[in-house]
Design brief:
Strand content: under 5%
Structural class: mainly alpha
Radius of gyration: 17 Å
């Protein structure tokens, strides 16, 4: 379960897309500055993701949203995100003066709407203490993996080149699209079963 969630969350966080933006923003940075920023971004992402993970069920209860409805909505967002990655679409990050660790790198580049929805759903699905603990550790491991990708950004840029990173980003988009389709189907199936039983 740990490995399964870790791999899923790693791709949900879209590390290679994030790396493309990270390298673009830090183009004029010294290597030490890049690595320091990568650590700061990782810490910010970890904090945001943990808040979303533990707040999922409470948010659904406050707004009266069922988990299955949110699964479908989050799945659609994830599908759109995956399609954007496959198509190689870029995003405008706006001015990059000052501290860019939280905005735009942590939010919305790494933790965007699709990632937010996925983590909220996962946090609401895991109800026991043991599964919550495994989910939390998987989430932190995924964030650490993304942080490692950013930390090694300069090396990956030299080793893979811009084209290589773009290819990995598009492959990530394919995996995200498949995960999104599964999430949508689970939500629809559960919704139909609940409707049929009533």
């Amino acid at each position: 379960m740990f490995i399964n969630l870790w791999i899923k969350l790693f791709f949900v966080l879209a590390p290679f897309f994030a790396l493309t933006i990270f390298l673009s923003i830090t183009e004029k940075y010294e290597e030490a500055q890049r690595r320091k920023l990568a650590l700061t971004v990782s810490a910010a992402v970890a904090l945001i993701c943990l808040l979303l993970f533990f707040a999922g069920r409470q948010i659904f209860e406050i707004f009266g949203i069922t988990l299955d409805s949110f699964r479908i909505g989050a799945g659609i967002l994830l599908l759109l995100s995956g399609i954007s990655l496959v198509q190689g679409k870029t995003v405008a990050v706006g001015p990059t003066e000052g501290d860019v660790a939280v905005v735009p790198l942590a939010i919305p580049i790494i933790v965007g709407p699709a990632t937010t929805g996925t983590i909220l759903v996962m946090g609401a699905e895991l109800t026991t203490i043991s599964t919550k603990a495994i989910g939390c550790l998987s989430l932190l491991a995924a964030v650490a993996s993304v942080g490692t990708v950013l930390f090694a950004g300069s090396f990956l840029q030299r080793a893979l080149g811009t084209r290589g990173i773009a290819i990995l980003s598009r492959l990530s988009g394919l995996i995200l699209s498949a995960m999104a389709a599964e999430m949508i189907m689970v939500g629809i199936r559960a919704f139909l079963i609940d409707s049929g039983s009533q």
